Amino acid sequence: MPSSTPQKTTGLHVGEPAPGVKKVDPIIVADHIKRSFGGLTAVDVAHLEIPRGAITALIGPNGAGKTTLFNLLTGFDKPDTGDWAFDGKKIAGVPAFKVARGGQVRTFQLTKALGLLTVLDNMKLGAKGQSGESLAKALFPWIWRKEEQEIEARALDLLQRFKLDAKKDDYAASLSGGQRKLLEMARALMSQPQLVMLDEPMAGVNPALTQSLLDHILDLKKEGMTVLFVEHDMHMVRHIADWVVVMAEGKVVAEGDPHEVMKDPAVIDAYLGSHHDEDLGELDPSITEAVKELADDDADDVKH
Ligand SMILES: Nc1ncnc2c1ncn2[C@@H]1O[C@H](COP(=O)(O)OP(=O)(O)OP(=O)(O)O)[C@@H](O)[C@H]1O
């Protein structure tokens, strides 16, 4: 965990924190998003606003619908119903590559770095606005070369920042899990996004790289970007999130400041679910761990 206490952004919402609460300056505004798989409703979100320029954590027990909501908001999946706007523009139904070009990028729970491409080539693939096979490229190759040079320079800059520059010519497959997470984040930044969405950035990351990943996420906010991340690690959520959205069974069941929202009975309920009357000792360790961490706010404050 980072040694210093990050500067939290407050005053993000209007009125009492509750599911669907209005934000002072939302970057995403979503309404009536539904996605079912067969008979199962994976996502059923009535209204959700994500605050701009802040770090928002999306938490909830396994199967709550977090990744499905991520997939929908980034155009990797299509909803049954729903409408949402990014930065004031309606983007429901817009395909993923266009969403990314518009300034909203994401990383995946399982990293998607292309193993048989070098680290540098992976970075170049993350750049937006490449002329591709356009007529302009065919007619004016020097324009294309200049763009290539700029992309490469930006890639090298970012690789240096993420301490991956020494690996630029290595295949992505040779990186450790944590380094691949860093590469994914660095690659996401190639398109100079406004909103960075991270799906479980800490999962599978060796503790030696945890600090570095957290610092990079905090840096994104310092540079004016908005961050939305899914995470099971409550310590991380409390430490870096300015705002927390809690999902359970497809719905948003609570929203608020990370220290306050963890005390909300609806959040404990979401994690205990149907296990409410069972002895904690008999539950799946992942549930007991989450509930313990939710209740562990004071201990966490002392630690940091
Ligand atoms: N492609 C799919 N086909 C069928 N069911 C799916 C599909 N994707 C998700 N689901 C189901 O939708 C529900 C929500 O899944 P989702 O992965 O969004 O949850 P999650 O909150 O991200 O969970 P986790 O924390 O375990 O990643 C789950 O019950 C899951 O089994």
User: What is the count of structural domains?
Assistant: 2
In N-to-C order, the SSE pattern is EEEEEHEEHEHHHHEHEHEEHHHH
Trace the largest sheet across and list its strands: 8-9-10-5-11-12
Residue-averaged pLDDT, rounded? Answer: 85
Q: Report the end-to-end length measured between terminal Cα atoms.
A: 8 Å
The CATH C-level class name of the largest domain = Alpha Beta
Any overview of this molecule?
There is one protein chain. This protein has 304 residues and is of the alpha/beta class. It has two domains: 13-110 and 194-267, P-loop containing nucleotide triphosphate hydrolases (Rossmann fold, 3-Layer(aba) Sandwich), CATH 3.40.50; 114-174, no CATH class. The protein has twelve helices and twelve strands. It has helices at residues 66-73, 96-101, 119-125, 135-139, 141-161, 177-189, 207-222, 234-240, 258-261, 265-272, 285-294, 297-303, and strands spanning 13-14, 22-23, 26-37, 40-51, 55-59, 81-86, 89-90, 104-106, 195-199, 226-230, 243-248, 251-256. The strands form three sheets. The protein has a six-stranded mixed beta sheet, sandwiched between helices. Strands 4-3-6-7 form a four-stranded antiparallel beta sheet, with helices on one face. Helix 3 packs parallel to helix 6. The protein is globular, with a radius of gyration of 20 Å. It starts with 12 loop residues before the first strand and ends with a helix. The relative contact order is 0.17. Mean pLDDT is 85; it is low at 299-304. Keywords: ATP-binding, Nucleotide-binding, Transport. One of its GO terms (cellular component) is plasma membrane. It comes from Microcella putealis.
